[in-house]
Specification:
With 169 residues, the protein is mainly β. It contains 2 helices and 12 strands. Strands 1, 2, 5, 7, 8, 10, 11 and 12 form an 8-stranded mixed β-sheet that branches. Strands 4-3-6-9 form a 4-stranded antiparallel β-sheet, with no helix packed on it. A hairpin with a 2-residue loop joins strand 3 and strand 4. The longest helix has 9 residues.
Length: 169
């Protein structure tokens, strides 16, 4: 899957989507007439400066996208002010990376994980609110570039979101 591709060094963005033949992306809710689709579909979210075809495709090409399990969760993730999907230059040994995560959920956020190179780097417990902001710094003591970071969000209702990575080096 996508996580194995990241471990192999591929630089790809993350999305989610439903897999049906109804032709109505994002339409999956309880008691819908789509009885042949008994499970909710995921959603692809895109950060674009405007709602035009060019801006959307540019955002997808630059991995400014993330996925959810179907909830319309808003997720922003940046390192040193650069958004998800960015490729940052490696910096000097012992330098600090300023990491910011903003979540606006559809239910209270139970947990947010920051992963570095596929391993959990930091975990925050939610405060039973739907809107959460987390900030941290990570120090690269060894400067063994390249690295990649991404975020996973868990809500109390079981819905989730995961960001596209940010690469260093």
């Amino acid at each position: 899957g996508g996580w194995e591709a990241l471990a192999r060094g591929y630089r790809l963005g993350m999305i989610a989507s439903s897999d049906n033949h109804v032709g109505m992306p994002g339409r999956s809710y309880p008691h819908d007439r789509q009885v042949h689709t008994p499970f909710p579909g995921g959603l692809a979210a895109i950060w674009a400066p405007e709602l035009t075809r060019e801006a959307l495709f540019d955002a997808l090409r630059n991995r400014r996208c993330y996925g959810t399990t179907g909830a319309r969760i808003v997720l922003r993730f940046s390192i040193n002010g650069e958004p998800m999907g960015s490729m940052l230059d490696a910096v000097a040994r012992d330098s600090t990376r300023e990491i910011k995560i903003d979540v606006v959920g559809t239910a209270p956020v139970s947990e947010v994980e920051l992963l570095r190179d596929g391993e959990i780097n930091s975990v925050w417990q939610g405060s039973h609110k739907a809107a959460e902001r987390f900030q941290t710094a990570d120090r690269d003591l060894l400067n063994e570039a390249p690295h990649y970071y991404y975020v996973r969000v868990y809500q109390e209702d079981g819905q989730r979101a995961w960001s596209s990575p940010i690469w260093i080096g």
